[in-house]
Amino acid sequence: SQKIEQNSEALNIQEGKTATLTCNYTNYSPAYLQWYRQDPGRGPVFLLLIRENEKEKRKERLKVTFDTTLKQSLFHITASQPADSATYLCALGDNDMRFGAGTRLTVKP
Amino acid sequence: NAGVTQTPKFQVLKTGQSMTLQCAQDMNHEYMSWYRQDPGMGLRLIHYSVGAGITDQGEVPNGYNVSRSTTEDFPLRLLSAAPSQTSVYFCASSRAGEYQPQHFGDGTRLSIL
After folding, report:
1. Is pLDDT above 90 for A96?
2. B101–A96: do the CB atoms touch at under 8 Å?
3. Which whole number is the average pLDDT over A25-51?
4. Which of A6, A52, A109, B4 could make an S-S bridge to B105, C-beta 3.0–4.6 Å?
5. Average pLDDT score over residue span A15-40
6. Are the beta carbons of A46 and B102 separated by less than 8 Å?
7. Residues of B in contact with A44 (CB under 8 A)
8. Which of A9, A43, A94 faces B106 most closely, judged by CB atoms?
9. Which residues, 6 or more positions from A9, have their beta carbon under 8 angstroms from its beta carbon?
10. Is beta strand A32-38 parallel, antiparallel or unpaired with respect to A86-92?
11. pLDDT value at position B97?
């Protein structure tokens, strides 16, 4: 069956460090993958989309990689700040888009 | 620019009651969907629609009905609420086609006693 796994339920890091979140998938051949941010009590907010022919995508302090051989995406936040504390979700699929369970990131001052 | 609006924000029901969760978007998006979010299980797709008059089932459709009579609205109906349907429900919309980000509402928190 198809699975999307985000390896860590929670990740705690110190301010200024780089946070790295992992998304692994099985039984998918996605044309692209998306990352979202969700704050408590709010809906997810789209951050980045990476296509299968793109190895890396950047947006300000965010970087996403996509390895279709390993079936894995890595999401990096450089120079992390307490305001980056949130749950981060990866998502695959088109009309029937499926999400991972998310990784709750806490950045401590 | 309201985006995706969900009503109500909170609701408590008794087992067996019926209810409609409302979702409206003002971005003229063709695609709309409903998810439920439970602790440790992430977002699970209930139903989706690629345009007015067209709906399809997602991962967990049982116990829920949808219809799409207009582009703007995509209501979710619980015909006979069960405690297992206690959850946070999110509606999302996007343009049709590949590579489109989803725009989410802020959810309806539903408790069924």
Report:
1. no
2. no
3. 94
4. B4
5. 94
6. yes
7. 43, 90, 102, 104
8. A43
9. A101, A103, A104, B40
10. antiparallel
11. 83
| Contact between B107 and A43 using a beta-carbon 8 Å cutoff | yes
Which tokens in the block code for residue A100?
């991972």
Which letter, b or e, does each residue of B72-94 get, where b requires 16 or more Cβ atoms within 10 Å of its Cβ?
A: bebbbebeebeeebbbbbbbbbb
Answer yes or no: do A46 and B101 touch at CB < 8 A: yes
Q: What does the pLDDT read at residue B1?
A: 66
- Whether pLDDT at A74 is above 90: yes
Query: Which of B45, B50, B56 is the closest to A98 by Cβ?
Result: B45
User: Among residues B36, B106, B109, B105, which one has the least CA distance to residue B72?
Assistant: B105
Of B42, B48, B107, the CB nearest to A99: B42
Q: What is the pLDDT of residues B24-36, one digit of tens each?
A: 999 999 999 999 9
Strands (E), B1-113: 4-7, 10-13, 19-25, 31-38, 42-51, 54-57, 64-66, 76-78, 87-94, 103-104, 108-112
Is A27 in the B-facing interface, judged by CB distances under 8 Å?
A: no
